Amino acid sequence: MRRTLLILALLLAAGRQVQPQCPATTQLASAETELLRGKPEAAAQVLVPLAESYPQCHEIILLLGRTRATQGIPTLAQDLLTRYTRLEPRDFRGFMILAEFFTGQREYPAAEQALRTALEIKPDSVPALLAEGVILARQGRDHAAEAQRAFERACRLAPGDPKAHFQWGVFLDNMGSYAAAGAAFRKVVSLDPNNPTAWRYLGMEFELAGKPEDADAAYKQGLAVNRGPRFDPLLAYHYGRFLLQVNRLDESQVQLDRAVELLPDYGAVYYQRAKVYLQMGKYPEARADAAHALAIPQLRRFTSDYQIYYLLATIYQRLSDQEQAEKFAALARTAQREQEQSRKASNLERMANSPAGNGSLR
Amino acid sequence: MLAQKSPVRPARSPIRFENRQAPSGVRFVLNNGTTEDKPIIDSMLGGVAVFDYDNDGYLDIYFTNGAGIPSLEKNGPAFYNRLFHNNRDGTFTDVTQRAGVKGDGYSMGVAAADYDNDGWTDLYVTGVNRNILFHNNGNGTFTDVTEKAGVGGITSGGKKAWSVAAAWVDYNNDGLLDLFVANYVDWSVAKNRLCGDPGRRLSCTPELYDPLPNILYRNNGDGTFTDVSQATRVAQHLGKAMSVAIADYDGDGFTDIFVANDREPNSLFHNLSGKEFAEVGMESGVALTDDGLAVSSMGSDFRDVNNDGRPDLVVTSLQGEAFHYFLNLGGGLFSDRAYPAGLGYPSTRMSGWSIGAYDFDNDGFKDLFTANSHVHENVQFYWPEQYRQPNAVFRNQGGERFSDATSNAGAALREAAAHRGSAFGDLNNDGKVDVVVSVIGAPAELLYNTSPATNHWILIQTVGKASNRDGIGTRIKLTGQSGLTQYNQVTTSVGYASSSDKRVQFGLGADRRIREIELRWPSGKVQVLKDIAVDQVLKVVEE
Q1: N or C terminus of chain B: which is more exposed, having fewer CB within 10 Å?
Q2: Do B208 and A344 touch (CB under 8 A)?
Q3: Beta bridge partners of B495
Q4: pLDDT tens digits, residue range B411-435?
């Protein structure tokens, strides 16, 4: 989000032409600085009086719209940003910012419309194409072909831009095109070898391709460059998870210990470390981590109840605590059955609402 | 984890297979009768049995087949199940009509065994709308005795369940083979659902259909069976069964039953002294994957893979899920070791149906063969995956790890096809285990094992007296000249919907003599043979 704002700020700076009915550039610049520093209230304090003094200054409307969006006042933000695009219908920046706003509100069709207008103004804008691709992809498989076209065009227009290939890779990964995603991330790291997240994705793609040696190398490369503003806190988690798969338990524990430090509220980290402890025969530690994972609210856990119950049943079996093992096995059965029923119900509902009577796929 | 390693491990040589279907005369094409809507049944068929129906010492082949949709009737020879007689010269003759085993309805799987102890192997065929028990008359013909036997696959609700697989097992050690029938989901033509887009439909996920209970029939010894599913508590557990495999995993002398379920937890029915079963999948660690997920479990085999004396489980699943290797830790516990054992990563690229754990290179360690294909004929419209996939073979590297040996296994294992069932057995009695694989829409594959290794071997044919005549459930411990000890058991329930040779094969490496063979019969008798010659088919009669 912060990176996107920075990109937009640069766009703004590049495209800005001070209008005669506007205040001095320094006043607007100070508001923008506050905004970029994450202080939208301070920016608003500058902008609101300016807006009253310069009601014909469109630039203030745009900046205030961004400020309201950052403040979390969507009604005002939408009103201001839409007004700006009406006043400046040929300004590419306005539509990009409006699209970004709608995306944040999960109003994807509106965001898509704004981006289409932006692309009519600047058909070869790579940031606009990438944003369009992301928004289309978020709208599901029905929009996948359009999203693919947007990403492909962005990569064609900017073959040396790692950001374009990165977004393309993420899209392919989400579509289950793991081999193609792997190729995209290989391209990213060749252009930008200091991107730890790209190395992480590449490691995951290699895993899915059944290439553990290559995955290991990719994760290691990622860890070697994992610093600075692009530090990726998920890298240690994924490498630790991978090392568990290949039975390098001590190394796995080191990575997952680090992951626990970096992501103390992320349930999956404790879940994976519990599995490492289980394999190591450290059953009390395994039990503690599994219980910790279970205590984390579902939203931050990224592991379902029944996965953890099942793990706890196994741990208690190894601890020869039959009563607890049976209790958690029963909980796992019930939770799994409930999830199955809920999935079936949602599938049937989707089918009922689908004109083609379409059920979900395996 | 590994009990012992061979002190005289032979040099490695590749595992190789050669498809000799063309010269064999086996012209069988698995016909799923598919329609535009791609109903879920059309991807699920294709059991194969290798068994010696005429007792001439050579394995014959039986294929199940589909039917028309929506009639679910075999309205033409293209849908007949087929029996091929082994001519002992590499060719086979289609004897279906004479034998009277073309079947009825939309067939799925097959289980072969001598249920009436008359010395002739019978057949049980599972299906969507019809299960059939074919009694072998001993004269080259079979008789449909389903009604008299009472094994039609009707659940306690009075409905014919869609049965995929079955296993012959003497669960109460009374010397009579009982019948476990593995049922899938509550599907009918009227309940069929549509998935995917018109013109490129996909098989719907089983999540859209209700699970079913399995059925256990107790053999009464007079040609009839009694449904004991309720009495033994088998029926209490619903699932979506794809395959069934049997072994005495806890060594208590009673055979247990594993059921691989599709996107449901697998079931492990622990046999409580032949009286009833406790479902202990969750407690034992075989219900879900190592990640606690219910995946699309498909085919299974239940044997000791690491030579520690405890039967392990290998299970196939679909692309992205990886195959599973549940290592038996003892004490009733298993651990999914697919990834650490080197099976996980290579198999993530595969969709597996049938599987068998056999020692293809006769080095003393059981390898794995998997019959592969994606479920969906139209998968390529949705994902970058292929419907037709090559089969795979994984070499056991000494009990702890597997390596993907497919690329060196010959051209036959590079052929992508819609593989389904497979049956394992030595078709030409050369001491090397061969594989017969059914293929939707293409000729079945007769994969002769042409591995160049000249390792020694033995095939053990058990003949029960107090135990069931096939000796199914007999646990065999073999110690070679070198001291390498191996374990296996008599079963025909292997893979996906299929039935393999009841004879038990052991690879012996460089050993030229067998120090000892110990047989633990289902009757409880223990029989020990000493100083046995290698490279033979050894018939052992229960004493």
Answers
A1: C
A2: yes
A3: B300
A4: 999 999 999 999 999 999 999 999 9
